[in-house]
Each structure stands twice: as C-alpha cells, then as structure tokens.
Amino acid sequence: MLRPDHFTAVVLFALCASVVFGITMRDTPRRMIRYGAYCFALFAGSAIVLSWVMFFIAR
Amino acid sequence: MATPQIRTGAAPQNPSKQGFVYLPLIAGWLVPGAGHFLLRKWGRGALLSASIIVMFALGIGMNGKLYTGAHDILDLLGLVGDLGNGMLYFASRALGLGADQVLVTTGDYGTRFIVVAGLLNVIAAVDAHNLRTGRKSA
Description:
The complex is a heterodimer. Chain A is built from 2 helices and no strands. By secondary structure, chain A is mainly α. Chain A has one domain (6-58). The termini of chain A are far apart. The mean pLDDT of chain A is 96. Chain B is mostly helical. Chain B has one domain (20-133). The longest helix of chain B has 29 residues, at 105-133. Chain B is elongated, with a radius of gyration of 20 Å. Residues 5-11 of chain B have low confidence and may be disordered. Chains A and B meet through α1 of A and α3 and α6 of B.
C-alpha cells in the first residue's frame, strides 16, 4: 500500500491534473505547456500558502 | 478566359474526421486517451492516458474506496466521478480492487484521486469530441 505524505500527494495530484488541464483548455502546444505550468504552480503554491496559514492559526 | 472551377463535393477528407461523430467521446470515456488516439493526436492522447491512468492507479495503491452504490447524495456524487473512469472502474470492480471502507488517511487521499481521475477523463473525452466536431481547433 502506498503511503505518501500530504505534500507528495499534493504534488502528484497537481502534476496529473495540470497535464490534463493544459491539454484540454488550450489550443497550441506552447500555450498548453504554459497553462499546465500555471495550474501546477497554483495547485502546489496554494497548498503551501494554506499550510503556513493553518500553522500560524494553530499557534 | 478563365475556366470556372467545378466543385464535385468529393473533396478528400481527413480519415480521422470520418465516421460516427460521438465515437471519440465514447472511446475516450471507456479508455483514457483513446478519443485523441482516434483523432491521431498521439502525443496528447499519450499524455492524457498516462496522467489519468497513473492518477487512478495511485488512488487504488493508496487503498482508496471505489464507490459501488448510492446511499446518500455524497455517495452518488462519488459514484458519478468514479464512473467517469470508464473501463478502469469496471475492471477494478471486477478484480475486487479498492477498499470497501476508508480506514487510513491515505485511503481518503486515494478515494479523491480515483474520483478526480474520473472527472479528468470526462474532460479529456469531451475535448476529443470538440476536436472531432471542429469546435476546438487542432
């Protein structure tokens, strides 16, 4: 059984979802890559930011 | 004097654009990426297929739950998401994969991975349909 930690799960989730979003939401390969990277950064970045927010709320 | 061009109506068509218009949609739902493969979008199909299958496999590997029935509205939504995986869902059910109940935290992650893989597969299948109908430019 796989037991990834939370951040690893977020990165794997973001990677797979970003590839699909990039390919399906844009027309040209260049724009697909840019949009996929943008989605990945938002997924992973928002998880990091929210984690720090929760860390400071819990203190 | 220029001779007028005669249109015969028999212009050569792309072979991938012939046939049943909903075939890429149905094939893409049943097998992730198959809709794009039918349209000869090999690279996109391979990436979509890999992403969705890996996400589903990670969900199963994390002991995620496969929804088998709808006892309440949340179960119904989960079942709809799982059904988006097409043959992956039916094959996994037939092989007895997936947990009946979520007992560990990673099992909860896995359940979400499986549901989201199904939803992403539906998006990919609709994209193949849009390419087939010309609503989305190649």
